[in-house]
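Training component of the fellowship. As part of building independent skills, the fellow (R.M.) carried out the full modelling exercise for a liganded target. The chosen ligand was glutathione. The inputs are recorded below so that the supervisory panel can assess the work.
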Amino acid sequence: MSNKFIEPSESASVTRESLSSLRMIQQPSVPVTVTLYCTDVSIYSTSIKIALTFKRVPFTAVPPPDGYGSAAYKAIVPSGKVPALIHNDFVVSESAVILEYLEENFSDLSPPLLFHRNSQKNATTRYACRIHDLYLEPAIRSLFPHVDLTKRDKIFVDSKFQIIFEHLEELERICDSHGPFFCGEQMTFADCVLPGTMMLLDMLMEEFNGHGVDYFKKFKKIGFIRETHFNHFAITSVLINTKEAMQAWLGRAKSRSQDESMMKPTTPRSSVGSPRVSSLPKLK
Ligand SMILES: N[C@@H](CCC(=O)N[C@@H](CS)C(=O)NCC(=O)O)C(=O)O
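Fellow's submitted model of the complex:
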């Protein structure tokens, strides 16, 4: 397996050292023209940060004023969602659109993230991103309310994990057998979009089942590709921030549920029911 475009970090995991390499990249020697509205726990923001870091585009990462969805933020980014990219006063929303915009505007310093001359690989890359955006991430997101032990519905959680594993099976089927990246020799959009979500999935599996996903047993090809990801400077340097923020969010969600369960009389499990989608917590 050739790691042509990988700049190995000192350790094969997400480390403090890799974070400092991100700080270096974020201190630009040319004027910054790119602003990324984002939050550290937003998986979609993570994918854009990976692409910007890979492309060595200097950018300023800022949280949305008053949080996403706020009137103040909607005055700048009408969709109210993160991530949003501002480039020379032009606002770009939706992570898939931002990735394509970056590809079209910032490909001079880095290899492209799409394989322009191989339409089958381009189609596989786009298909992997669609699986992620339409099915995998929403299924994972639906588990958030169940981190709270007082709201956990085991039947709901198990059914979602089944759906998640079906989508991982499809990703395993389509990814390149030789790697080192999802679609072969070259890093693509899929390698920007999947690492954050897979890390989050691992953390939730750990939370719900006491262990992460055993990729080498169930999804071997993805397991090898994840090793590439964990050795890639652009990916690890971003993931370390996301991981810290997610650990803090998980800790807060759990301690809230511990507080609530200490204050309330014990509720019989069967009467808890499945939380409605509208009760999804905002990951801020
Ligand atoms: N399809 C969007 C999804 C982004 C998204 O769901 N962002 C969440 C945070 S992770 C958000 O901004 N939610 C605010 C809202 O829905 O009002 C994308 O790919 O950028």
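The panel noted the following from the submitted structure. The chain has a mean pLDDT of 84. Residues 122 and 235 are 21 Å apart (CA to CA).
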